[in-house]
Amino acid sequence: MGTRMTLYKLVVLGDGGVGKTALTIQLCLNHFVETYDPTIEDSYRKQVVIDGFSCMLEVLDTAGQEEYTALRDQWIRDGEGFVLVYSISSRSSFTRIPRFHNQILRVKESAGTGGSPLANYNNSNAMYSGGSPATGSVPIMLVGNKSDKVTEREVSTQEGHALARELGCEFVEASAKNCVNVERAFFEVVRLLRRQRNVGGPRRNTGTGDPGDMGAAQGARGGKAKKGGNGGKKRGCVIL
């Protein structure tokens, strides 16, 4: 008999070129994308087991370019938890993180689902910079990607921790290339969402399905719209 799985809708945000797609594909397809291919919108699904519970992750990889700000509002409205990504080798991508964070809060507050950006941080000894977000807040993970680029580092780990404290969110450095802390970045957002739902928040279910395996990608990869070309024409394929 199938096991009912909960659906978690995660959105990956950040500047262009910081490795949002690389992190997403490393999580869902278990390989590293070497070339930079600007994305407008690309959706993935993966069945996983987190802390003994089967769940379905729907991960939306998004564009970081300024011209897609209006589209970003819709992506944020549709999302439940967020992964904010910067590159440790790009200070400009780091300094733009508060803009993405503020946009999340603005959109969620207008929808009646936001929380105070500073109310969540209350434990300086937590695993990440942020503590456990309070009920009603927006689950957000700040990720300093490309931690493998040691000699090109422009943003220190301490600065990442400090920004996470300021924004009241979780923090981890990761490497999509070396598959370091990739699952942790996404799974912690799911844990935060689960805590909110256990207190009485809304639940999403995919219906029925078998318990997931962390290494197995299931479901469908959505259409990928690339910048330029014939007006963002989408291509689709299915992951078996």
Low-pLDDT runs of 5+ residues are 115-136, 202-240
Tally of DSSP β-strands: 9
Name of the CATH superfamily:
P-loop containing nucleotide triphosphate hydrolases
What name does CATH use for the topology? Rossmann fold
Order of helices and strands: EHEEHEHHEHEHEEE
Shape: globular
| Major beta sheet summary | 9 strands, mixed
Helix/strand class: alpha/beta
The number of helical elements comes to 6
Q: Measured on Cα atoms, how large is the radius of gyration?
A: 17 Å
* CATH class descriptor: Alpha Beta
What secondary-structure arrangement, pairings included, does this model have?
Layout: E1 3-14, H1 20-29, E2 39-50, E3 53-62, H2 69-78, E4 81-87, H3 91-95, H4 97-110, E5 140-145, H5 157-167, E6 170-173, H6 182-198, E7 205-209, E8 220-226, E9 235-238
Parallel strand pairs: 1-3, 1-4, 4-5, 5-6
Antiparallel strand pairs: 1-7, 2-3, 2-8, 8-9
GO biological process, one term: signal transduction
Organism: Pyronema omphalodes (strain CBS 100304) (Pyronema confluens)
Family: Belongs to the small GTPase superfamily. Ras family.
What's a quick, concise take on this entry?
The chain has 240 residues and is an alpha/beta fold.
